[in-house]
Amino acid sequence: METAEQRWLREARAFLGGAIGPTPGGCGGTDQLVEAVLRGLRGLGGGGGGGSSSSSSEVLPLGYSFISISDLQHQQCTPCCSHLTWSTTEFKEWVRQSEGLLSKQSALPRAHLILIGYLTDGRQEEGEKRVDGSLYVKDNSGAVPCELLHFELEWLELLFLFPSWAYVPQKDHRTGGYVEILADPVPVNPVPERMVNKIPVIYPAPAMQLLITRVPCWKRTKLNVAGELARLGSLLCIHHKTFFFLFLKCFTSAACVPVLVQKPAQLAWHHVLQLGHGYVLTALSMSGLKMSGHKVFVTSFSSCLRPYCAEQVKEQPLDGAWQEGPVQPVCPQASVQLSSLLELRYEDKRPVLTKESKILSYVGTITRVLNAQAGLYELDNKVCLCLAYQQLLYFARGLRPGASVELRDIHLLQKPLGSFHSIVLGACLHSTVLLKDFSRLSTFHQPVASSGNLYLELLFRYNLSLPLYLWVVSLIEMLEQRFSPFFGRRQLLLFSKHQSPGVAEKFLVPLLDAVVPSKNQARNIYSEILGEIHECPLHQYQPLEPPCQAPALSLLCSMAEQKSWETFCPSQLLSPLDAQHMGTQELNCRLAWSYSTFSAESFQPRMVLLGVLRVSSKSSSLQLQDYSGVLPCVICHRDGSPFADTTLIGSLVQVETYQLVVEMFLQSDFPSWEQLLNLEHVREKKTGLYVQFYFEDVQVLSHPKPLIGERPASRGSPCLGKKNDGNPKVELDSPDAKVPKLEGTEAGASSKEYCARDPGSTSGASCVSCLFLVTQKEGLMPRNYMPSGEGHEDKQELQPSFQATVLWMGKPRLWANPGEIRSLPELEQTTDHVEGSETQQRVLLLFMGKSSRWFPVLHPDGLYQIVVPHCTDLGVFKQLCLPPVPKRVLDQSCCPSCLPVPDTWHLQHETWISCLPHPQLVPESVLLSMGQRVSSIPDLLNPRFTGSLVSFCGEIVERASCIPVEYKRQSASSNTQGHKESLLPSDHNVKLSVIAAPSSSFVLNVYITTTFLKHLRGLLPGAKILFQNLERKISRFHNVYCTYIASSCIRIVALPAPDVLLAPSPKGAASSPPLVLLSSLLLQPCSLSHAQAFCHLSHVLALSLHWMCSLCNSIFREGRCTRQSPPCPSYTGVSQASARILVEDGTGEALVQCRNQQVAAALGLNSAEWEAVQSCVQSRGSISIQLGGTSAGTACVEEPDDLLVWYLRSLCRSPVACRPILLTFSLDRKPSKIPQPVTLQLRRFLGTEVEFMSQVGPRPILTSLNIQEAEHKVLSYLSSKRTLGLRHGPLPISTEDI
């Protein structure tokens, strides 16, 4: 029976015979090889089975098995180590020491494997591989790169046993690992001894003289140079040539000479050379570098590297003429202790434009790989190491967390970039980076790409300083983190050397062109290595504050919300003159909705907006998306046309000019305006964010992939797919979903499909399309379109939906692939279309559920293609009549049929009706109705206007939340759902004051309930809005206003100007009201909304001063409410005042209603006098004074004959009140109907000396908006205009003329 040892020996012979074979030049065959390997294993004294150690040197490691290079690379997917000579106790102690190095990092696991192979430098007889200085372990199955801490040139091409080694694979690649040789390898055959004869050498001091002096005979002579290795340059590969420099220092002086090593067979010297050791380099020649002119020694093919031994060399004397000459010592900079620099404190806080880096030596442990491709590592948890300015040593093999490195001539930079490590160590080409010890931790290899590296490409193209390079790295990392799930890392990091630029390059190149000086000096690597005065990109630096930032959308929203609430002050939202007269309900209602706006410059550094443009199926709005979240957006064109470019859906866009809007919704219980600074009365705060910008300010960084044909998930449904349970995060409108799929398709949905796949079709990419013109679109809101006959109406949930009336513009067409759809093929035909024909039939399109995502890009007057993917049935659009829509809806829209649009269908915008080359292809009746759809605001205010549903365009001058006087709660489920989703209370409305143009004085009020606010964005003062299908109403006082209803929708025509957003103007302040005469108000009572008049205050007819309870509006007297049943707990009162005055300007008279602060202005009281009057009224609660005469309009009321009443009566009759004023007013229609012109009545007027009779008309009733003092010379100026004013109506007078 075969024993375990015999079986192990049999397997060993089989492995060695196949993987290794007979040794080159060896005597005998496989048997001799096996005996040599076994002899080496026994000589190691390996513990059998990897268990306890054995004292016998004849014990074979039966617990270990041989592994070939190929199996190691393909089967070992995780890091591991093998210690052939260690016992279990020794390994456990090693593991214990390893795990204490870094937290959350485990030690390398042990693998009982025996590695045997040849050490080689990669040279092959066929020349298939370029030698790059790397070392390899190879056998007959393959070769794997290896790293050693100690290497001898005699080891090349010899067979070795490796007693201690570790294999480190790449995380995502099976064949990208390498081997770390942890202990010196054991040769299978004895290493041949090299016989060394005594050779003549020269030392660096005289060798330097030879380099300085041009000596032709010495230039042709091969020299042997001996010296101490003072500096070892890194391996460089330039123009497909690999080389490195070394510097030999004289043993007795500081003289150094540079040696260039570039022969492929000599690149392995880089592994042998150790700083501070003596070496002899033979057969060197002198040469000059063409690029820099420096003189260096260059190795030849016959050059050899030998350890320096004084007994084996003899100094070669030079001629006396060459021994004299200046010797310029070149030595490394003195080392500086980093520990002292870490504790430096900035004593001088003054800004320093340019700093010089310090050069030092440092030994540390890699604790984290910050970015391997960028060459950034963290040392000792506190220092950043940048190796990007020199090509990384052996593709960064060995630079893993836990590895120890030694840095010589390294640059230290303090705070090069804000929000980055305070101390950065940068290695230039003059620096030396040595790997001192391998890592013991189980971490993967992160290789550095030698080509196609965007980090290094931008670094060398712009010769970036370290602060700028760190900033560029942070931006690339940001792009990769935010958008690699959408576009993939490869597409993001492409650079344009051999192909089109990637996203990162498109984003960074304009920024770098603006930041980096255009005449930035190119980097001279030879001067950097060989120059006597060291100059490199790291020598001097300027600490950099990032010019811009582009954080994740979630962080951007968080920053904007924080800034909004930090600067939020309720007292600044209301005018103090108005707020002090508001009750609790009105005050808190006005505070319920406010906003803040931010631009890119509002953040430091400047904020650049990046995101993937998408249409959301949940909110039915345009959004910018990254991995962290979404940000709703409003996009406009500067020419006023709507955004409808469906080809940009899925694009990565960059916006630098934008308005970030933070809508703030507040629920509060402020008792009065005096407590506005006390934020304890704020019960709840909510925010809603969106961004608005012009499409002309958008830069597209990456276009979406073209729509490709994919078979839907459901076999029985070529048009409707099923939810992809394997990827729940991919929404139907995300860039990853190339063909959207319908989520939650029911089992019986296949019987309701609108198209059928051709059984004989071999491709699933075919599609059907048809062109249509949008003639009308209704608003988006939850509706109850449900198929009939299903029952369960109570259980059906509402879904967001909208409907659009369209006109087919041709017949359906079949395409082999969506990419073949030509632009407007139907309109290229020359045949005439007949109105009412099959090709131009009106249809009502219903967008329900996820298909409502097309709402923000579907606009009237637009031509669109509707695409049905995976369909070959041209009759798909004929199966239109479906039961969800009642017949009355079709009758109202003048459409004979309707078409519900499934979720998987696509829309493609083609053009606008105004851009058609042959507009006669559209029926004339359609063009006429579309052209007469929009009305003007003056026409809507005209009482002769008869329309009910109206559309108009105007600019918002004021918006406010309000509570209707008679609010009726609706029990409909749609309203309930809308109120739940709204951020405003359900009893609040939004009032918009809209003007036709900035120079217009016609104001139209628009009221919107909270049900519709969820889908409306951009309603800000200064914005120009196109309101469509609003309901025009006339109040009982004959005021014209509009309300937003279910069929209404809005479109942002122009965004507010930045200055308007920063300082929103109150209503009526957008333009100076016109100056009119009072007589013109009777001739054209509806032509003006706001106006000014220079007039004389003739009489104060009535005056009322009250203190009201802020909670219940009862009389407030002596600090408490007077309501008794039930008792009111309020202890807060607000003052309210009203007065009726009579004014005249010589052409007519008018009654003016004044309230609150306008009463004080009418009486001519300053703020101190007005506060004194209010304080006296507070003890009484209420005072009403009506002066006698028919002008009062009511009978006189007896008032207490006290001092306050006497003072107010006297004040109303005194010249202080009765004086010339400049009155800003609006027409007041509440007390009665609009005054109509009637027959003039005869009136008597008394002057100081003259009594005369005149005919006057009825007095118009006005509401005072502002009262200003008017000088006497102004009235004198107007006397010359009165005659013209009586004859021609309103005077063309402006305040600039006066």
UniProtKB/TrEMBL annotation:
TM helices/strands, residue ranges: none
Keyword flag Cell wall biogenesis/degradation: no
Keywords: Chromosome, DNA-binding, Nucleus, Telomere
Sequence segments annotated as region (Disordered): 711-745
Pfam family of the protein (one): CTC1
Location in the cell: Chromosome, Telomere; Nucleus
Coiled coil: none
MF terms in GO: single-stranded DNA binding; telomeric DNA binding
Bias-annotated ranges (Basic and acidic residues): 722-744
InterPro entries found in the cross-reference section: CTC1, CTC1-like
Presence of keyword DNA-binding: yes
GO BP terms: positive regulation of DNA replication; telomere maintenance via telomere lengthening
Any one GO CC term of the record: CST complex
Main localization of the protein described in the UniProt heading: nucleus
Family recorded in the similarity comment: Belongs to the CTC1 family.
The protein's name: CST complex subunit CTC1
Organism classification: Eukaryota, Metazoa, Chordata, Craniata, Vertebrata
